[in-house]
Design brief:
The structure holds two protein chains of two kinds. Chain A has strands spanning 4-7, 10-13, 19-25, 31-37, 43-50, 53-57, 64-70, 73-78, 87-94, 102-103, 107-111. By secondary structure, chain A is mainly β. Chain B is built from no helices and eleven strands. Chain B has strands spanning 4-6, 11-14, 19-25, 32-38, 44-50, 55-57, 60-65, 70-75, 84-91, 98-100, 104-109. The mean pLDDT of chain B is 94.
């Protein structure tokens, strides 16, 4: 069983569309994250939820909205997609801040 | 000064060589440290935590130098499969203060 699974793996869409990425973890971790990795490979935190509560909300456009229906799921919805949103989006989970993260395999988003 | 800095490389080393990477951090209050490896077009995977006393896992040794504010990763007897980007991660306390370095690329050559 995959520990952190995210879907879809690839997403190609036109500017202006709305899309969602889903993430699920079966590790029993309390905290889940969304990271964005741009073309320069820099991993930047976007959001984090701890037991369904938003604890990190970095400066990202409000076109990005996370949603955590329960502590095993964290989804990311993106409205009005722009070219600059093209990147790899990684979901991750951890038991606590001082523990290492387990990452999903990533969603490669391409906006055309 | 960046919060976490790594030499991007690439480090090109022959098989069997020993190679070491450093990662410097700016926040002296940093509490926990990790090394991850990321293969091309894959997700980062936790390689090892870095403990104050240093720790070893097979061919990999991690060290922490609080006085000079850096962590290091030593790889002995490099294998072709060690080729990857190595990311250091520093936690200055709490979820909001976890910072990833931009990675050091290692290429092990036959």
């Amino acid at each position: 069983d995959t520990a952190v699974s995210q879907t879809p793996k690839y997403l190609v869409t036109q500017m202006g569309n709305d899309k969602s990425i889903k993430c699920e973890q079966n590790l029993g971790h309390d905290t889940m994250y969304w990271y964005k990795q741009d073309s320069k490979k820099f991993l930047k935190i976007m959001f984090s939820y701890n037991n369904k509560e938003l604890i990190i909300n970095e400066t990202v456009p409000n076109r990005f909205s996370p949603k955590s229906p329960d502590k095993a799921h964290l989804n990311l919805h993106i409205n009005s997609l722009e070219l600059g949103d093209s990147a790899v989006y990684f979901c991750a989970s951890s038991q606590a801040a001082d523990y290492g993260y387990t990452f999903g395999s990533g969603t490669r988003l391409t906006v055309v | 000064r960046k919060e976490v800095e790594q030499d991007p490389g690439p480090f090109n080393v022959p098989e069997g060589a020993t190679v070491a990477f450093n990662c410097t951090y700016s926040n002296s209050a940093s509490q926990s440290f990790f090394w991850y490896r990321q293969d091309c077009r894959k997700e980062p995977k936790l390689l090892m935590s870095v403990y104050s006393s240093g720790n070893e896992d097979g061919r990999f040794t991690a060290q922490l130098n609080r006085a000079s504010q850096y962590i290091s990763l030593l790889i002995r007897d490099s294998k072709l499969s060690d080729s990857a980007t190595y990311l250091c991660v520093v936690n200055a306390g709490g979820y909001q203060k976890v910072t990833f370095g931009t990675g050091t690329k290692l290429q092990v050559i036959p």
